[in-house]
Design a protein that fits this description.
Layout: E1 4-7, E2 10-13, H1 24-28, E3 31-39, E4 42-43, H2 46-60, H3 68-81, E5 87-94, E6 111-118, H4 124-129, E7 131-137, H5 152-163, E8 168-172, E9 178-181, E10 185-189, E11 195-197, H6 208-219, E12 224-226, H7 231-235, E13 239-244, E14 248-255, E15 258-259, H8 267-281
Parallel strand pairs: 7-8, 7-14, 11-12
Antiparallel strand pairs: 1-2, 1-6, 3-4, 3-5, 5-6, 8-9, 10-11, 10-13, 13-14, 14-15
Bound molecules: N-(5'-phosphopyridoxyl)-D-alanine (PDD).
C-alpha cells in the first residue's frame, strides 16, 4: 500500500507531496506540530493532543486551519488511507505561504499537513534493559512549552547523543537542573520512592505521555513531586526513565558515565511502563 499524505486540502501520494518554498514553516520554522500514537487502530489521548495543538497555535497567533471536528476527520482519513493500525500520525500547521518577511503576513492562510506511518519498531530491549542518556546544556529558547517545528537545538542534542553512543540527551538549564530530553520528558525516582519530574513551566513541553503517567502514578498510590532535579540528583537516583508518544516509557540506566543504581531498570519504572502500555492499548 503506497503512503498518502494530506497537504493543504488534498490527499496526495506521500513521495510526491510537497509544500511551497515560501511556506513560513520551511523558511522560519513558523509552525507547530503534534505526534499522536495509533494503538490497535485507535488514537491514544487524542483530546490532549488536540488541546495542546490549539494552545500552541494560540500562543503563536496562528489561526486554526479548520475546526477540531474537521481535523479529527482528516486525521482518521489519513490513518485509514495508510492502513495504520499501530503507528503514528504527524500533524503540522504552519502560518502559511507568503513573500519572505519576518513579521506576520497579512494574507497568509495556515497550511495543514497530516501524515501517518506504521510504527517503526523500537528495539524491545530498550524497554527491558533500559537506555543511556548524556547531559548537555539546554540551548533552546524560553518557550519550550510551545510545540514548535523549530527543533534545531533538539536535532543537535539528539545527534550529540547518537555520537556519544547514547539514546537521548537530557538538557540542563543554567542552574544545573534537567529540563527534558530532546524529544522526551525526563523523570527520576528518589531513594524514598518519590517520582520526580520537572513542573510544566516554559522550560519543557508538557508531554501528553507525561500527563498520562502522572495520572497513573496517582492511581497506583505512588508519591509524585513536580519540581526541578539536578544532574547530580539524577545520577544518585534509585531509578530514572523517559517518556514520549513514540517511545512510551523507557527505563534510563546510565547518565553520562554514571550507572543508575545497579544498572538494571527500576522496579517502579517497569511497573509504570506496564501500566502506561495498558493505558495506550485501552480504548
Ligand atoms: N516529541 N519533550 C519534547 C521536547 C518533545 O519533542 C516531546 C515529544 C516530548 C514528549 O511529549 P509527548 O509525550 O506529548 O510525546 C517532550 C515528539 C514525539 C516528536 O517530536 O517526535
Amino acid at each position: 500500500m503506497s503512503r498518502i499524505a494530506y497537504v493543504d486540502g488534498q490527499y496526495v501520494p506521500h513521495r510526491l507531496a510537497g509544500v511551497r518554498i515560501e511556506d513560513r514553516g520551511y523558511q522560519f520554522g513558523d509552525g507547530v506540530y503534534e505526534v499522536l500514537a495509533v494503538c490497535g487502530a485507535h488514537l491514544v489521548d487524542e483530546a490532549l493532543h488536540l488541546a495542546r495543538l490549539a494552545r500552541s497555535l494560540a500562543e503563536l497567533r496562528i489561526a486554526a486551519p479548520m475546526s477540531e471536528a474537521a481535523l479529527k476527520l482528516v486525521v482518521r482519513e489519513v490513518i485509514r488511507r495508510n492502513g495504520v493500525v499501530d503507528g503514528i500520525v504527524y500533524v503540522q500547521v504552519t502560518r502559511g505561504v507568503a513573500p519572505r518577511e519576518h513579521a506576520f503576513p497579512r494574507t497568509a492562510e495556515p497550511v495543514l499537513v497530516v501524515t501517518a506511518r506504521r510504527k517503526r519498531t523500537t528495539d524491545p530491549r530498550f524497554g527491558t534493559q533500559g537506555v543511556a542518556v548524556i547531559t548537555i546544556p539546554d540551548i533552546r529558547w524560553q518557550r519550550c512549552d510551545i510545540k514548535s517545528v523549530a527543533l534545531i537545538a533538539n536535532v543537535l542534542g539528539k545527534q550529540r547523543a547518537r555520537e556519544a553512543g547514547a539514546f537521548e540527551a537530557w538538557q540542563v538549564d543554567r542552574d544545573g537542573f534537567v529540563t527534558e530530553g530532546t524529544s522526551t520528558n525526563a523523570w527520576v525516582v528518589t531513594n524514598d520512592g518519590t517520582v520526580v519530574t520537572r513542573q510544566a513551566d516554559h522550560a519543557i513541553l508538557n508531554g501528553v505521555t507525561r500527563r498520562a503517567v502522572i495520572d497513573i502514578i496517582g492511581a497506583e498510590g505512588c508519591r509524585l513531586v513536580e519540581r526541578p532535579f539536578s544532574v547530580a540528583e539524577a545520577k544518585a537516583a534509585r531509578e530514572a526513565f523517559l517518556t514520549s508518544t513514540t517511545l512510551d516509557l523507557l527505563p534510563v540506566v546510565r547518565i553520562d558515565d554514571d550507572v543508575i543504581s545497579n544498572g538494571e531498570p527500576g522496579l517502579l519504572t517497569l511497573r509504570l511502563r506496564e501500566r502506561y502500555l495498558a493505558h495506550a492499548a485501552a480504548k
